[in-house]
Amino acid sequence: MNEKKTRVFTNSIYLGDIKQRNLMKTLSLKLDDSVFSETEQVIHHIKKSRNRYINEALDFYNKVQKRKLLASKLEKESKLVKDESLKVLHEFEIIDYES
């Protein structure tokens, strides 16, 4: 018998042999009344769904927080090599002065 197979793919993106799914997680959260009211006003004016708006807001906030973490890590690591860097700089200054 000749069976015809049908495949249904929902919210899937195929890149070569890699299949990535655009899955959504359900989240229940409590918002302060003032935050909720302000959000409702904004999304009404920009014609965007509450879900999309909150997704974009969290994505933006995550990026901001990652940058802060990276800056903090860079500052910490810079302090660790500060003395050695100053020594090397001083040595280069001596070489430059002697030339």
Question: Helical stretch count?
Answer: 2
What's the helical proportion of residues?
55-70%
Tell me the span between the first and last alpha carbons. Answer: 89 Å
**Helix-strand topology string:** EEHH
How many beta-strand segments?
2
**What is the overall shape?**
rod-shaped
- How are strands sequenced across the largest beta sheet? 1-2
Mean pLDDT across the residues is: 82
Structure description:
The protein is mainly alpha-helical and 99 residues long. It has a domain at 31-98. The protein has two helices and two strands; from the N terminus they run ββαα. It has a two-stranded antiparallel sheet with strand order 1-2. It is rod-shaped and about 70 Å long. It starts with 11 loop residues before the first strand and ends with a helix.
Task: Give the gist of this structure.
The protein has 99 residues and is mainly alpha-helical. The protein is built from 2 helices and 2 strands; from the N terminus they run E-E-H-H.
